[in-house]
Amino acid sequence: MNEDAILDVRGLNVRFRGQGREVTALRDVSFSIGRGRTLALVGESGSGKSVTSLALMGLLPPNGRIAAGTLAYRHRDGRVLELTELGEAEQRRLRGVQMSMIFQEPMSSLNPLFTIGDQIGEMLLLHETMDAATRRRRTIEMLELVEIPEAARRMDSYPHELSGGMRQRVMIAMAMICKPSLLIADEPTTALDVTIQAQILDLMRQLQKDFGMSILFITHDMGVVAEMADDVAVMYAGGVVEQAGVDALFNDTRHPYTKGLLSSIPGPWRRRGERLVPIPGSVPPLASLPPGCAFAPRCGYAEPRCREPVALTRKAPDHLAACILEGVEAP
Ligand SMILES: Nc1ncnc2c1ncn2[C@@H]1O[C@H](COP(=O)(O)OP(=O)(O)OP(=O)(O)O)[C@@H](O)[C@H]1O
Questions:
Q1: Which among 102, 110, 199, 207 is least surrounded, fewest beta carbons within 10 Å?
Q2: What residue's CA is closest to ligand 1, atom 24?
Q3: Within the chain, how many helices (H) and strands (E) appear?
Q4: Ligand 1 center to residue 70 CA distance, Å?
Q5: DSSP secondary structure string, 213-234?
Q6: Where is the chain membrane-spanning (predicted)?
């Protein structure tokens, strides 16, 4: 794995059992996250973003399995660990400490029966050794870092006593308290209104600067990608179709699906006066993907050749796309 990378995913295949057969949810997914950088994983609903993050965290549901691939992770002590080879106990030690995750809906991850102070403190109790007074002090400091007003008093609040934005701040505090090197954020602001969303994104950027962590940022929102990402991997129907630095992805788009995502939403990358054009059709069910390029049935550029398998290939330095075209005109 590259010297600067903290995580390197190669050829990841994930399969789910159900109704007497197995379907492939991730096909040959590869990407790398640099130290201190943010990689956005972007795509429509069902493209495999969440399955990717669960596979990384070792949290796939019981009917899912990693059928192929390697997940190399650079430990804080410099060792490179292969996550697929770790035992349950080692994986648990990594989770929450070195790799932690925040989800879209904080209410489903916070326990309604415990105060937020207890829940943040619990992370320290599980992963670090310290007395109760130090734990309380560290928890208050963390709540202050995520800009929760009157942190010492708020410690004793229950999740339902807080607003959605405050609960998301608590989730971030829980994820950050052990100073992880990699934060996986799965649509962390989707459930919030626009002003609060902007505040949470600002906060994450600030914490990234302070802590130097890498972020895997999962989103379907190209506006959020533009604001947060250094690098972007675009997913479609369980595969990565384009990967590049954020500027190249927006200004030198190589895959028609990425172009479709950019054309279907307003944003500063659009030409003035241009109409928003939604991508026609929807993501095909995993069990009945077309042969060759999975996007071809929805693609305005499709040719008979697209029924053959298309590999992710280098179109420019640090720019990969799985398309027979050299590029598509800017959206
Ligand atoms: N436990 C499961 N059993 C069977 N299939 C599953 C399971 N979990 C996810 N899948 C399938 O894997 C595919 C990818 O799902 P995933 O949740 O990763 O998509 P996503 O891109 O994160 O979408 P969203 O934005 O809606 O969360 C979907 O087709 C989904 O049906």
A1: 199
A2: 45
A3: 11, 12
A4: 20
A5: -EEEEEES-HHHHHHH-SEEEE
A6: none
**Residue ranges of domains in the chain:** 29-63+84-98+182-321, 104-179
69 and 10 Cβ atoms separated by less than 8 Å: yes
Q: Which residue type, as a one-letter code, is found at position 225?
A: V
Quickly list H helices, the chain.
Answer: 49-57, 88-94, 106-109, 116-127, 132-145, 151-154, 164-176, 194-211, 222-228, 246-251, 256-263
- Residue 239: CB within 6 Å of ligand 1? no
The reported pTM is 0.91
Contact predicate 176/100, CB 8 Å: yes
> In this predicted model, what pLDDT tens digit does every residue of 6-54 receive, in sequence order?
999 999 999 999 888 999 999 999 999 999 999 999 998 889 999 999 9
Q: What is the pLDDT of residues 214-230, one digit of tens each?
A: 999 999 889 899 999 99
Tell me the C-alpha distance between 326 and 212, whole Å.
36
| Residues β-bridged to residue 8 | 32, 72
What top-level class would CATH report for the domain 29-63+84-98+182-321?
Answer: alpha beta
Provide the 8-state DSSP code for 306. G
In angstroms, the Cα distances linking 169 to 82, 270, 298 are: 31, 32, 39
Nearest-angstrom CA–CA distance, 311 and 293: 9
Nearest to 313 by CA among 305, 303, 323: 323
Which amino acid is present at 125?
L
Q: Report how far ligand 1's centroid is from the alpha carbon of 153 (Å).
A: 39
